[in-house]
Amino acid sequence: MVTNTPTGIAERPAKPAGTRRTSLDDSRGYRVFRVVNTVVLLCVAAVTLYPLVTIVAQSFSSELYIRTGQVNLVPRGFNLDTYKLVASDPAFWNSYLNTVVYTVTATAISIVLTTTYAYVLSKHRLKGRGLLIGIAVFTMFFNGGLIPNYVLVNGLGLTNTMWAVVLPNAISVFNLLVMKAFFESLPAELEEAAAIDGLSTYGILLRIVLPLSKAVLATMVLFYAVANWNSWFPAFLYLDRSDLFPVTVYLRNMIAGATSATSVGAVESNAVAISANIKAVTMVLTVLPIVVVYPFIQRYFVSGVMLGAVKQ
Amino acid sequence: MTAQIREPATTAAPDPGEPPRTPKAARHRSTWRKAFKRDWQLYTLAILPLLFFLVFRYAPMLGNVIAFRKFVPGGSIYGETWVGLRYVKLFVNDPNFWEVFGNTMALGALSLVFTFPLPIVLALLLNEVRSRYFKRFVQTVSYLPHFLSIVIVAGMVMQLVSLEGTVNQVVRAFGGDAVSFIQEPGWFRTIYVSSEVWQTVGWGTILYLAALTTIDSQLYEAARIDGANRWRQTWHVTLPGIRPTMITLLILNTGTFMAVGFEKVLLLYNPLTYPTADVVSTYLYRVGLVSNNFSYAAAIGLFESIIGLTLILSANAISRRAVGTSLW
To answer: Residue of A94, B44, B93, B274 with fewest CB within 10 Å of its CB?
Structure first.
């Protein structure tokens, strides 16, 4: 059967497997299927990675090769000038710093609100619990819509402040339900014992429950932090001053073709051509933190999604 | 239970001033008082989150009254005077609205047709992989797009379909002429749906893969003894095993049918592609926030929200009736 796996990738690990179905009854057709399957999955992986690799390759290439469509997987005319150019743009660093500040603030607020509410909702003895859950869950299926939200944020005087970005989406009901499910799974005896020892509800939450919840808290921090890092529309909608823009809005304006980085590029002779480079570099620098931590955080996300699905 | 829910939102502070009208009401009040005495600290923990929901979720819901009221920017967020159904009539008679409504349905339907079944297929293929390392590699790679900002995704899409991008390189290699895809209304749906698939297919497999591991291996034994080959095992054991997951996700997908990726359309469309790309949410964005017709846009938005709610409620009801699975 090993001879039937020309890719060489499926054959090596085939040994430790044989979990559910033994390899003894592999029909010829099934062995063919497994080869095809491996090839198909390799194609899926390749197609998924291709756009990212292209952007990275372009970020190191000179503009001439990009303009003539010669940069796909490997940089052509390798240089670091574009990185230097982008790194010398104070507007870029300013927006990058904004993104960091917004992400940290929003995540902190979200964690506090989500944790406290999820803890309240996890207490089955609580009178009015059904109503409190209903208040949250209903917002998953019906929302005020763009215009009333905009009018509200305007009316509260939050436009052109960080709070317009940070507050309106502070609680994700999905994350709330994940945390609630986790708190419900904790043994009640621990909290009862702590209560008998004279700890208040706040004390129990801070000193007993939260230290036991580090894993789910980490998951929540990641969920919120990644969402905030990637968010652009609230900032685009509520912030007019370019010194407040997060890097996603900076990038969006660049892609839409009206931004400060083209003014950086305009120093060179050909602004249009350079902007293709600059776009690529800005995109790479924007996703870099995510891609770097991604392999480590991915399994927390997966477990979070599973935890959220438990209730179904 | 109903009585408990019907209690007003006094969870944080039950009103002691109201006199008891019936013995029943008196009993309720005293149990509330007891509950509050015992759990007041828990109720205080709920205050800030409740404030969030009231201000940033329920106040905008009420804010939809401006769909029936004259709204003056800078005035009350709930408008000035009643105008009845004026704005509703306006959009019902607006041919642009029906065009974007049709576009929304088309994009929503196409997305559903591709993004619902493809994760199932991918999960089934991954399930047949015996090498743990290879499986994990494909999973890790295919989840990645889920973590990228939509701005990055839009940037990459535009790069790929640009005149000198990869797609046009392939077109030229086959002897065709380069197409400016991003400016062609005829290509917008293809671009939108394929990028949607690229973004969601890997992440969509997670719940299916979890469901697949819960299928009892004895069922496969039994099927094999009955002479079922791999294909029949998949058809008669695997697929029924993940059916509840499929239905749950189908309900959720249907519920978000109308809310086609507003942000992505906003990033990818341009006036040239409006004929196919403009959807209800982008149209109301332009009407409301670019042209400042807040009330008109709010009427459209309310209509959209109600359709969304109706869709998810009916999908849920149908699936409960037909297959006995529902979200709640």
So the answer is: B93
Amino acid symbol at A7: T
- Of B9, B220, B255, which has the smallest distance from its Cβ to A131's Cβ? B9
Range of the domain at B74: 65-322
Closest CA to A56 of B155, B181, B198, B265: B155
Q: Which amino acid is at A165?
A: V
Portion 141-160 of B in contact with A at CB < 8 A: 141-145, 147-152, 154-160
Alpha-carbon dihedral sign for residues A86, A88, A93, A94: negative
ipTM over the 0.85 cut-off: no
In this complex, the residue of A17, A167, A287 whose CB is nearest that of residue B131 is: A17
How many domains does the structure of chain B reveal?
Answer: 1
pTM attached to this predicted model: 0.84
Question: Shortest Cα distance from B96 to chain A (angstroms)?
Answer: 19
> Does residue B57 lie within any of the structural domains?
no
| B51-89 core/surface letters (b: 16 or more CB in 10 A; e: else) | ebbeebbbbbbebbbbbbbebeeeeebbbeeeeeeebbe
- Examine residue B54 and state whether it is found in any structural domain, yes or no: no
What is the C-alpha to C-alpha distance for residues A76 and A62, in angstroms, rounded to an integer?
7
Q: At what angle do helices B95-115 and B185-200 cross, to 10 degrees?
A: 40
- Assess A87–B contact: CB distance below 8 Å, yes or no: no
Which DSSP string corresponds to A29-72?
A: HHHHHHHHHHHHHHHHHHHHHHHHHHHHHHHTS-HHHHHTT--S
A170 backbone dihedrals φ, ψ, rounded to 5°: -65, -35
Nearest alpha-carbon partner for A225 in A92, A116, A101: A101
Residues in chain B with CB shorter than 8 Å from the CB of A232 are 149-151, 263
The pLDDT profile of chain B, 328 residues, written as one tens digit per residue, is 333 333 344 444 444 444 445 566 666 777 888 888 888 899 999 999 999 999 999 999 998 888 888 888 777 778 888 888 888 888 889 899 999 999 999 999 999 999 999 999 999 999 999 899 999 999 999 999 999 999 999 999 998 998 888 899 899 889 888 888 988 999 999 999 999 999 999 999 988 998 898 888 899 889 988 888 888 888 999 999 998 889 888 887 887 777 778 899 999 998 999 999 999 999 999 998 888 889 999 999 999 888 888 888 888 888 788 777 666 6
B226 in any annotated domain? yes
Distance (Å, whole) CA A84 – CA B82:
58
Q: Of B58, B151, B230, which is closest to A30 when you measure between CB atoms?
A: B230
Shortest Cα distance, chain B CAs vs residue A96, angstroms: 14
Is residue A54 within 8 angstroms of chain B, CB to CB? Answer: yes
Number of A to B CB contacts under 8 A, please give it.
Answer: 306
**DSSP for residue B236:** I
Q: Which residues of B touch A54 (CB under 8 A)?
A: 156, 159-160, 166
Backbone angles phi, psi at A213, to 5 degrees: -110, 20
Nearest to B63 among A148, A248, A294 (CB): A148
Residue B74: strand, helix, or coil: coil
Is residue B8 situated within a structural domain? no
Which H or E run contains B174? Answer: none
